[in-house]
Amino acid sequence: MGVEPGESIPEGFTETTNDFTFIATRRVTPAELSALCSVDTYCTWKNSTWKIARIDRVRNVATLKIALTLKGDYPEVKPWPQPIDFRSVPTVDYMDREWIAVDVRPEEMARVMLLVTAFETPPPVTALLDDEVQAWPDSVGLSPWLPAEDALAVVRGRIAGEDLGSYPVDRLQADRLRDGWRVWAVPPVSDDPLDVRLGWAVWYVADDGVVWRSSTSTDFGVAEQRLTDQLFERLQATRRG
């Protein structure tokens, strides 16, 4: 049981403290217990299930750790750390990846769930939380993930409908961003030192499939932040609607 600083300790409990936590404990007999349970909080982020390890309200940051995951469920591309290579243990169907952690905004967590597991009586019971949980009143209803192949297909369709001259569609590449993809073809080498290709076309495709055209004239960091902000606004609007 945790007690916030300034609150009184309930009768029958004793207090132990250290530099970081306030803890109250009470000794009971087995006869007083109806069950022993483990309670963990999970959410969906980027189409994967994550365990909510910590929330820093001061910095507005939630630390997520990847949960037990089936083969192929985890997007093995940057900016996340690479998971353990399943090929080294080919006989298992899932593995514990709690060593993989990411920091996100609490509002980005979708489908917040409590997993209550009774030690003596499996299977576990999952309780889906929604607006009743005050810690996540503005959490999104979903957290989409767009594969690179889909982002490339979207951009190819856009190029086919636009007049871009000899833009090298066959050399398109998708570079992973935090919330989508930067799709473009590296400009061809020019002998003209004044040809810096500042207006070279670049497309940004968000994880919900929305795409917008930019160019190499736009600062990369500014464009990526715009992609993230607009995706979050759309997800919030979808939830409110």
Provide keyphrases for this structure:
2 helices; 241 residues; 4-stranded antiparallel beta sheet; SH3 type barrels; alpha+beta; 6-stranded antiparallel beta sheet; 14 strands
Number of DSSP E strands: 14
Q: How is the largest sheet built, in terms of strand order? A: 8-5-4-3-9-10
Q: Which descriptor suits the 3D outline?
A: elongated
Order of helices and strands: EEEEEEEEEEHEEEEH
Q: Calculate the terminal CA-CA distance, rounded to whole Å.
A: 38 Å
Counted up, domains total: 2
Q: Pick out the low-confidence regions.
A: 18-22, 69-98, 129-138
Helix vs. strand class = alpha+beta
Number of helices: 2
Can you walk through the features of this model?
With 241 residues, the chain is of the alpha+beta class. The chain is 14% helix and 30% strand. It contains 2 helices and 14 strands; from the N terminus they run E-E-E-E-E-E-E-E-E-E-H-E-E-E-E-H. The longest helix is centred in the last third of the chain and has 21 residues, at 220-240. The two termini are 38 Å apart. It has 2 domains: 37-128, SH3 type barrels (Roll); 148-240, no CATH class. The chain is elongated and about 80 Å long. The strands form 4 sheets. A 6-stranded antiparallel β-sheet has the order 8-5-4-3-9-10, with no helix packed on it. It has a 4-stranded antiparallel β-sheet with strand order 11-12-13-14, sandwiched between helices.
